[in-house]
Amino acid sequence: MRIGIATDHGGYELEQQLADHLRKAGYELVEFGAHRLDPADDYPDFVIPLARAVAAGTVERGVAVCGSGVGASVCANKIPGIRAGLIVEHYSAHQGVEHDHMNVLCIGGRTVGLAVAVELVDAFLAAEFSREERHLRRLAKVAALENGLTSSRTES
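Now predict its structure.
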């Protein structure tokens, strides 16, 4: 599986450790930066190219790390076709893929330790989308919203 990974200064150390783990686990890794620790860098400069690569299918899934994971999640979700989640525990790491077809995992480099981050990434990458009708139906509603459309069930 080809995986993309991105970080800013807030997640740099954790991202470096995750990248090593992913390479050792046999994943093909595409690193979108940061390529050096720079306290003045901005997460969108790295997360946007990662998210675009996931949306385009250049990489199958993405891992984005920033200080809290919040900025990376907000940024990634602005790219059409991205379903990013800020994940801090094991269940959501796999359930987000299985039910919601999550394709970018966001983690906080200042909020999650290495052991937990490895567990989250491993669960995320091992999970597969269920393709159950109820999940497909829900994703169709999300896609319609993303495309500027809504269904009468979602309008208030």
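The chain has one domain: 2-130.
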